Amino acid sequence: MKQSRPIVFVAHSLGGIVVKDMLNASRTEVTYLKQILPATHGIIFLGTPHRGSAVASLGKIAQEVTRVLWKTPNTSVLRDLEVNSQTLERVGKGFQQILTERELEVQSFREELPTKGIMVVDAFSSSMGERSSERYLRIMRT
User: Fold this and answer.
1) Structural contact between residues 40 and 7, judged by C-beta atoms closer than 8 angstroms
2) In sequence order, what DSSP letters do the residues of 26-48 get, joined into one string?
3) Antiparallel, parallel or unpaired: β 40-46 and 105-111
4) What is the pLDDT of residues 51-61, one digit of tens each?
5) Which pLDDT value is given to residue 1?
6) CA distance 136 to 134
7) Angle formed at CA 81 by CA 75 and CA 82, multiple of 5 degrees
8) pLDDT digit string (tens) for 63-106?
9) Model-level pTM greater than 0.85?
10) What is the dihedral of CA 57, 108, 42, 53, to 10 degrees?
11) Per-position DSSP letters for 73-128, written without gaps between them
């Protein structure tokens, strides 16, 4: 099989969760998609709520308000982003397994200052937790 080009994912917020879940799926895939994980050399997470976000609950409230004006909104994605969600736990455990099986460069960036008074992804949420070699970088507003 032909050697693939190295991949470095750059993912923001929910996109980081999607990348982790996709890599989990690639780990067990039997089609051409199985080539994604071996080709992955690094991931840059930007404000990814690895452990969920309290703001997801606020988003559900906002969606309930919009229910009056539009069709029934899909709140399942926001529910999956809440702290202690089963989906985030499943994705996180699978991704931790990947990190124990292979060397992968992981950088996490998080907010240092609230946006309009709200800290969307705080220090706890932006951390994957168990991986000591994960690097965290703070971006300060100038």
Assistant:
1) yes
2) HHH--SGGGGHHHHEEEEEEES-
3) parallel
4) 887 765 544 43
5) 44
6) 7
7) 95
8) 444 444 555 555 566 666 777 778 888 999 999 999 999 889 99
9) no
10) -10
11) P--HHHHHTSTT-HHHHHHHHHHHHHHHHS--EEEEEEESS-BTTB-SS-HHHH--
Q: If pLDDT is split at 50, 70 and 90, which confidence band does 11 have?
A: very high
- CA gap 59, 100 in Å, rounded: 34
Show Cβ contacts of residue 24 under 8 Å, excluding neighbours closer than 6 positions. 91, 94, 95, 98
| Residue 95, amino acid | F
Contact status, residue 127 vs residue 108, Cβ threshold 8 Å: yes
Sheet order of strands, 105-111 included:
7-12, 40-46, 105-111, 135-139
